[in-house]
Amino acid sequence: MAFDIHIIGGGLAGSEAAWQLAEAGLKVRLSEMRGGGDMTPAHESDRLAEMVCSNSFRSDDAENNAVGLLHQEMRKLGSLIMRCADQHKVPAGSALAVDREAFAEEVTRAVHGHVNVEVVRERVDALPGHPTIIATGPLTGSALARAIAAETGQDALAFFDAIAPIVHRDSIDMTQAWMAARWDKGGKDYINCPLTKEQYEAFVAALNEGEKTEFKEWEKDTPYFEGCMPIEVMAERGVETLRFGPMKGVGLDNPHTATPEHPNGRWPYACVQLRQDNKLGTLWNMVGFQTKLKHGEQVRIFRTIPGLENAEFARLGGIHRNSFINSPLLLDGELRLRSKPNIRFAGQITGCEGYVESAAVGILAARFAAAEHRGETLAPLPVETAMGALLGHITGGADAETFQPMNVNFGLMPPLTGPRVKKGDRKKLYTERARAAFDAWLPSAKVAELA
User: Fold this and answer.
1) How far is CA 161 from the centre of its chain?
2) CA 20 to 30 Å from 120, out of 22, 236, 268, 335?
3) For residue 191, what is the domain's CATH number?
């Protein structure tokens, strides 16, 4: 099939970009190396939009959270990723988490079934000369990565991304654990495993002493991304670090410790939370437990957690190298490579962090490409919006010398102006301003949509 735009990479960003372009009436060739004889160190299948590290799209609160606001903006732009996530969501309190296999199947079916998309299982090793969106993500093939480096003259930045273990639900001892969300917000959607002070300190000591994965020589100077820090690396920062991070017990009433004075129970000294990972509720993800411990050590150490003594693991944690380009230096405001403007980049390779952010940048790259193909210009997205703030950060708002992957957050948006605002009102004011700016911009975005 002849095509108008070539997309390389069938992850969340590439799948979203393909859908947006196809819906706009353009012909798309989507190249994905998985299924064509190649595989990455982290993926397990050849499905499009396979989620590797977690099954969570994080907060879906569009009133008080920048990620929830991003969800809302993407839905208004006809996001395939958000549509499939909403169809296959699983309980996760105020967060949006999905059955990862059903989600990927739905995206794959939709993209393959679109009349304007041709999915080709092939590896691309060189930068094409035709209009292209590169959305190869953090695990870009080595030959293509070298081609990008040769074109840009810049060494790709890189960090390590760690994967959390998944536990079979029926192997969790619920006589010790209990179901609840923190502060009871969003329902009883998490399994909570409480630790006493003695159990917690012994657990931290075991993490510090546990045998870790050895890095290859070329990996040793690669930093971690702060938002996906391995549990044992956090433990090395101090004995209390985990108790004020992923293992905090604040806001969790343990009914097993109920007394007449405290009928709802007391907060545990520390707590491990597990979040539902599939719609059937048979698999549960250990929240914040990304790890580079060797597999045998993971089983031994994680089974010291109360409630997980007999845990059976559907997947153990792992670690992989994550690469991205220095976007503020290399890309223009429409995600084009300055030195080769027929090439656009989208997704995590641009230095945005997170599934939702990657898909959002895929939407933007596609709409910029569609407008350019028609000889039109997409109106600039206001920086007061979640998508505009994210785009601004990766295409110039960040310092190129210290550029690091970034999740969407209110700190990327211009400060609020006017009368002094109470701290408790700031988030809602940010979202109200963002919605007004986005809704005013939205009609101009129709240039990149099918009439």
Assistant:
1) 11
2) 335
3) 2.40.30.260
